[in-house]
Amino acid sequence: MINLSPVEIEGHTFLAVSVLLPKTTLLAVTSEKGYIMCGALDVGLLNEKLKDRKVIAGRAVGVRTIEQLLDAPLESVTLEAENLGIKKGMIGKDALLKML
Question: Alpha-carbon distance 82 to 66, whole Å?
Fold first, then answer.
């Protein structure tokens, strides 16, 4: 099952996506510029093999809900995210606000 829902952060609307799979759930929250995602995100792949796409993204591990993803510190971020001032350890919702 796929769930889509709006998420409000400081008056801005983002889109939350949950994909329920056997034994795991993929979680992401996106803006028009970038997104944060659960541990399934391969930041290394985005930074290396897909560098030309200039993806703005951050990864949080150990999260099981959208709320946890928003409140979790990012374990890793893409190079393009760093260019926007998004850093490893930044809370998910703060990173999303930088993606506006």
Answer: 22
Closest CA to 74 of 18, 36, 24, 40: 36
Coil vs helix vs strand at 62: coil
Coil vs helix vs strand at 22: coil
Beta-sheet pairing, 24-30 with 34-37: antiparallel
For residue 15, give the CATH number of its domain: 3.30.1980.10
Range of the domain at 37: 2-98
Average pLDDT for the chain: 97
pTM for the full model? 0.94
**How many domains does the chain contain in total?**
1
